[in-house]
Design brief:
The protein has a single domain, classed as Rossmann fold (3-Layer(aba) Sandwich). 50% of the residues lie in helices and 17% in strands. It contains 9 helices and 7 strands; from the N terminus they run αβαβααβββαβαααβα. Strands 2-5-1-6-7 form a 5-stranded parallel β-sheet, with helices on one face. The chain has a two-stranded antiparallel sheet with strand order 3-4. A hairpin with a 4-residue loop joins β3 and β4 (113-121). The longest helix is centred in the last third of the chain and has 35 residues, at 211-245. It binds cytidine-5'-triphosphate (CTP). Cytidine-5'-triphosphate binds next to α2.
């Protein structure tokens, strides 16, 4: 049968998995909607070795002195697509999709700046890209195999954001609330929410609590991987048949 034939070829040909064929999942949604928790829940369920979560937070641009001053007063707009270095993100995603290594910038929310160091990521089986603008740039949309929009009530999002930003991002409660009403909320309506209608394949209400939706995403990824592995095995088999007839 095809499986044992492919295994036999694999052994002889030092078969390695098709790294250049990473499955890309995009997860967008409001700040504090639980995108990162949802991504981790999917990874846990998937139980595969080569799954990577890439946060779009890594791709915030560094600021000049004047903008940086504004940022420390919670007056800089980090919720406009302008704040994100989409060119760098696309470059990294294309490299990973092509089976290459990508150097991911490291961003500090405390300094509002990109650090000098980078993190190297090697092409995984599955890559989850999560961020408020994960379904925004047409070049990214083109690369994605599945597009997810994570939904939560605005008050849930704001409460989560206050707790997280104070605990992990060096902010004050007053500062978080000021930034929320100045930029986060209006720009959610302007830029983030439209991705639900224009970009998403599935919408996940109640984020991480939604086991049905998580299972759907997991099943989709498993199905994709299975198809790719079948396709790869069939290609190997064809090569072997060709080699035998020559
Ligand atoms: N942001 C900020 N300061 C910066 C850069 C970004 O406050 N120097 C904020 C932006 O206002 C934006 C948010 O970071 O709204 C994006 O991160 P968020 O989506 O909240 O975090 P995730 O962990 O990716 O998502 P979730 O909360 O849904 O898990």
């Amino acid at each position: 049968d095809i499986d044992s034939a492919a295994n036999a070829i694999a052994k002889r040909a030092h078969y390695s998995p098709p790294w250049a064929d990473v499955s890309l999942i995009g997860i967008a949604g409001s700040s504090g909607s639980g995108k990162s928790t949802l991504s981790r829940a999917i990874v846990n369920k998937l139980n595969l070795p080569w799954v990577v979560i890439l946060s779009m937070d890594s791709f915030y641009k560094s600021l000049d002195a004047e903008s940086s001053k504004k940022a420390f007063q919670n007056e800089y707009d980090f919720d406009s697509p302008e704040a994100i270095d989409f060119d760098k993100l696309v470059e990294c995603l294309r490299d990973l999709k092509a089976g290459k290594r990508a150097e991911i910038p490291i961003y500090s929310f405390e300094k509002h700046a990109r650090l000098d160091k980078t993190t190297a990521i090697y092409s995984p089986h599955v890559l989850i890209v999560e961020g408020i603008f994960a379904l925004y740039d047409p070049r990214v949309l083109d690369l994605l195999d599945m597009k997810v929009f994570c939904e939560a009530d605005a008050d849930t999002c704001l409460s989560r954001r206050i707790l997280r930003d104070v605990e992990c991002r060096g902010r004050s409660v007053e500062g978080v609330i000021k930034q929320w009403f100045m930029w986060v909320k209006p720009n959610f309506e302007k830029f983030v929410d439209p991705q639900r209608k224009n970009g998403a394949d599935i919408i996940v209400p109640r984020g991480v609590e939604n086991l049905v939706a998580i299972n759907m995403v997991v099943q989709f990824i498993e199905q994709k991987l299975l198809e790719k592995s079948r396709h790869h095995r069939a290609a190997l088999l064809q090569l072997e048949i060709q080699a035998q007839s020559e």
